[in-house]
Amino acid sequence: MERGLAITPHSLSFSSNLVLRVHQIRFFSLPCASGTKVHVTVGHTTVMAKATYFYHKAHVASTTTSTTASTSPPQTFDPSVEYSYLAVLDPLTCSDQAEISTPRVVFVLLQLDREVLCPPRSHVVCSRLDTDVNKHVCRIAFHGRVDAVIENVATSVRIGKVKERRGVVDKTLDDPAVVIIKEIFRKETNWDVFRGLRVQNVRTKRVGQLDGPFGKAGKVRAVFPNDDVAVPGDVVVLRFTKILFQDKHDRSLGQSPTIYNDQEGSATTFKEDKGSTGGNKSEGGSTSAALLASVECEKKCRTGLVERLKGETATNGSNPSVIAAGLFATAEEAAEFIGAQVATDAAEVGYVEALFGKAGKVRVVFPDGGTFAKVGQTLRLFEK
């Protein structure tokens, strides 16, 4: 039986980018990572789409204040607002049921593999139809009504992803307010886009400003308040927000007034990705799980998912490699982390071997006996 839509000529156009508010299905038990594909059903049409999850910053404020004084975040998408990137949308758990009455406003940008006819406020159902049908699990992840049909993602959707670089105070100059920072940029980095951004001394918590390059080895000069006594070896952090999908010619970076507060960009409510776009990479190869656990608190962490298993499955059930999704937003970003360490929940340690496609996916190899991780399980990438 053929199905279709009866419409007035030219009353609808084909669309390939949709934004909707996420309403999760509580029976769906798998996490959903940004950058992974979902099956999108609009009307009688089902098509694959890349999903990017994001939320309003007001959500963090409303969940950290008293329930009587908090203000609910906006319930509909506003293209003029800058939203926060959400790396992984966790499934609803039993403990979440008591919080369902509190608005948990999450949106998703769906970049469809092909255009579809989408009437205004259409009801959209997003599923994971690639899961094993023999496991008898819910495969409908979430649903929602279309809030916006996007023609140009670069100009109509502002999703800010918090990124972080860390360096070390190399030395101070005659003026005690001026310090030289090393290891925060590579020598080939075009650091002009970082000029004037604020940095924080982790030990003293004082905030200074990047002033200019120092030499040709990637070192930079920063100015701190006169009462901030920095010493060589102090860790300095540069935290900023990069807008996803922006034009390649628009390399501007942003910093909110509260970006160095503990609350902003934290992973207390959402698993916010605060990975670095540069700096030193971890070396490829194997390390012991005990060593990885001991330094975990000193590293930044990206969270992704096992999208599929690769290689021949061994007799003990392990696989030599997996395809990871959600660790990176783009292939360009992923290319900077070739060789970085990745760990499973079972403390199996591998490394990023190569890119997989153009959507930020990577192939992760586990050289010491493979991995027993399954599709949908969490992966974590650690950085120094």
TrEMBL record:
Residues 254-269 have a biased composition (Polar residues). It holds the Pfam family euk_SelB_III. Residues 157-227, 299-369 form the Selenocysteine-specific elongation factor C-terminal RIFT domain. InterPro entries: eEFSec_C, eEFSec_III. Residues 254-286 are annotated as: Disordered. Residues 19-144 form the Selenocysteine-specific elongation factor 3rd domain. This is Uncharacterized protein. It comes from Aphanomyces astaci.
